[in-house]
Amino acid sequence: MLWSITKIVVFIALVAAAAFGAAHLLEMEGGVRIVMAGQEFNLTPLKAVIALVLLVIAIWLFLKLAAFVIALLKFINGDETAISRYFDRNRQEKGYRALTEGMMALASGEGEQAMSKANKAEKYLRKPELTNLITAQAAEMAGDHKRAEKVYKTLLKDDRTRFVGVRGLMKQKLLAGDTQTALRLAQTAFALKPRHQEVQDTLLQLQARQEDWKGARETLNAKLKYGALPRDVHKRRDAVLALSEARGVLDEGNDIEAREAAIEANRKSPDLIPAATMAARGYIEQGAKRHAIRVITKAWEAQPHPDLAAAFAELEPDETPEQRLKRFGKLLKLHPDHRETRLLEAELHLAAEDFPGARRALGDMVENDPDARALTIMAAVERGEGSSDAVVKGWLARALSAPRGPQWVCENCHHIHAEWVPACENCHSFDTLSWTSPPSSAMSTSTGIEMLPLIVGALEDRREDHDIEDPGADPDDDNILDATPVAENGTDPEREATEK
Predict the structure, then answer these.
(1) How many of the other CB atoms lie within 10 Å of CB of 449?
(2) How far does CA 125 lie from the centroid of its chain?
(3) Average of per-residue pLDDT across 453-460
(4) Higher-confidence residue: 319 or 30?
(5) CA-CA-CA-CA torsion sign (23, 27, 29, 35)
(6) CA-to-CA distance for 394 and 8, rounded, in angstroms?
(7) What is the distance of C-alpha 406 from the center of its chain?
(8) Tell me: the pLDDT tens digits for 274-303?
(9) Residue 462 pLDDT greater than 50, yes or no
(10) Is the pTM of this model over 0.70?
């Protein structure tokens, strides 16, 4: 509304200025005297201005006519598009102006405006390879996925825009959840442009989701070949894929091939814990215990882990707890202050019924950095040392509300996994799981789970107070409830008989 009023005011002001100027010229004296070829022309100021305007128009028409004559001569000399270019020049200017405005609208997030400008540009330019791209992206921005998919399919017809169309359709199928079609489109896009890093990552992720480990390894090698991946990262991820391939072969029942694949994965990345445990178990099945010990020890040096301890225990399944504690000594010396080492040592002492040794292994962990595992071990220590049930239940109640400790956590979305997998089950990111403690969050429940240790302690205190004998009390009074038979419905049988 304000803009319309402004335009009306400006128009009236211009008309008034023109009228004022014309009146002023009519009132002026003198004029312009022109002498040419023996002829003399005297023009008043108003006529001089009109003549000047006509002269400018004549020059403009002359230039246009000259350009047309030049285009006609070029056409006569064999340039078949000279005349069409002459008439289309103005249309091109309008088209490129609309195209520029469409790109600006797209950059500013105005999807509907961008589509409108793209349609206008197509009307003047007739270059779908330019305008269709803006239309498709604007349709995506505006949420019109059907139109975007239709435009991307149009781009497939031109070799110059084929990759853009395939990539756009791939993204549309990913949004729709059609991973099978998206995988085929990603393979096509990768064949068209194998150096494209986004296509490489998308193809690798989709292959991992479909458990196509062989194809994923080929894609990973292509990323290394074209410089999209550092060599050390490639080595680690290739080990992850080799391990995943080994698991797939093991599920098919081919133990020998799975064992070899696991050993290959461990060789590529010795610090990959699942690969180390699987390779160690493969060596154990072969009877090569020395190789298994070397694999576990090297992985433990990188990061202590319960799965490594379990595989190390499988080396001698029939040994006594004392023998196991002695054999684990070399492993425990590698990282004596590590949390996993201290917990493992405490568990080994528990198995040997050395409860003071288990307490010493835990140290101050239950006070300074407790988790469910440490508190559960502490409950077992208290039970082994003969503590009351209330003390043991108090530790178990604390364990119930304590953090779970290190787990397989996705570094991208922090999703917690029960066991290691090559790709996150939540965000599908590849090789993002790490053995770490998840972000802590305060536990709040309607049952007041954080109060359980205090409740258990309070009940025990009441029981102990009840067990203390009163010197002035009748000993028979303590057992009056036990001496009086009570029916299942809570009534006294003798009293009912008397009343009857």
Answers:
(1) 13
(2) 40
(3) 48
(4) 319
(5) positive
(6) 85
(7) 21
(8) 989 988 988 898 888 999 999 999 999 989
(9) no
(10) no
Q: Hey, what are 317's tokens?
A: 């399944």
Token pair listed for 93: 């200017």
Q: How far apart (Å, rounded) are the C-alpha atoms in residues 96 and 456?
A: 79
3-state SS record for the chain: CHHHHHHHHHHHHHHHHHHHHHHHHHHCCCCEEEEECCEEEEECHHHHHHHHHHHHHHHHHHHHHHHHHHHHHHHHCCCCCHHHHHHHHHHHHHHHHHHHHHHHHHHCCCHHHHHHHHHHHHHHHCCHHHHHHHHHHHHHHHCCHHHHHHHHHHHCCCCCCHHHHHHHHHHHHHHHCCHHHHHHHHHHHHHHCCCCHHHHHHHHHHHHHCCCHHHHHHHHHHHHHCCCCCHHHHHHHHHHHHHHHHHHHHHCCCHHHHHHHHHHHHHHCCCCHHHHHHHHHHHHHHCCHHHHHHHHHHHHHHCCCHHHHHHHHCCCCCCCHHHHHHHCHHHHCCCCCCHHHHHHHHHHHHHCCCHHHHHHHHCCHHHHCCCHHHHHHHHHHHHHCCCCHHHHHHHHHHHHHCCCCCEEEECCCCCEECCCCCECCCCCCECCEEEECCCCCCCCCCCCHHHHHHHHHHHHHHHHHHHCCCCCCCHHHHHHHHHCCCCCCCCCHHHHHHHC
Question: How is residue 230 written in tokens?
Answer: 């550092």
Residue 447, pLDDT score: 46
The CA dihedral of 477, 483, 489, 492, to the nearest 10 degrees, is -80
Cβ atoms of residues 281 and 247 within 8 Å: no
Q: Say what percent of the chain tops pLDDT 70.
A: 79
Q: Which residue has the higher pLDDT, 273 or 21?
A: 273
Whether 408 and 434 have beta carbons less than 8 Å apart is answered as yes
pLDDT digit string, tens, across residues 209-262? 888 888 999 999 999 998 888 898 888 888 888 888 887 776 665 667 777 878
pLDDT tens for residues 7-20?
787 878 877 877 77
For the stretch 67-126, pLDDT in tens is 778 877 877 877 766 666 666 666 777 788 888 888 888 888 888 888 888 888 777 777
Contact 138, 115 (CB under 8 A): yes
Adjacent-strand bridge partners of 434: 409
Residue 55 class from Cβ within 10 Å (0-12 exposed, 13-18 middle, 19+ buried)?
exposed
